[in-house]
Write a structure and sequence with these properties.
This protein has one domain. 43% of the residues lie in helices and 14% in strands. It is of the alpha+beta class. The relative contact order is 0.17.
Length: 127
């Protein structure tokens, strides 16, 4: 009788290395960004700014809530995953910075995945 291989018996080379995982994540973000509607990306960046002005910390859940509160006729895109590149752009524009903290998303489409907690660089900023 032959012993069935378990999940834990797999050779270690079948595990994805950290550099490979990061490059796949970056590739996925680039693909989402490339295929996202430009008007939607601009709208979401404005939502990031709006939330960052009124809150000390924020997540993509907060940005999505600001977007959902907009009136009908707002731009749409094929997938919400393009929010990642929008947040990276906001970080590069020095609107937000990472806190190093993560929480579970409360949005049903996100299935409780971990999301970044960002610190606003606009909250209480002198204008």
């Amino acid at each position: 009788m032959q012993k069935q291989e378990s999940l834990f018996d797999r050779p270690s080379e079948s595990i994805i290395s950290q550099p490979t995982a990061w490059s796949e994540a970056e590739r996925g973000m680039k693909q989402a960004e490339d295929h996202a509607d430009e008007a939607w990306k601009d709208c979401m960046l404005r939502c990031v700014k709006q939330v960052a002005v009124r809150q000390g910390t924020l997540t993509t859940d907060d940005v999505h809530a600001a977007y959902e509160a907009l009136p009908a006729g707002k731009p749409t895109t094929h997938t919400d995953s393009a929010i990642g590149p929008v947040m990276v752009l906001a970080r590069k524009m020095k609107l937000i910075k990472t806190t190093g903290q993560y929480i579970r998303s409360k949005r049903i489409p996100s299935h409780g995945k971990l999301i970044v907690v960002w610190e606003s660089l606009l909250f209480n900023a002198p204008f």
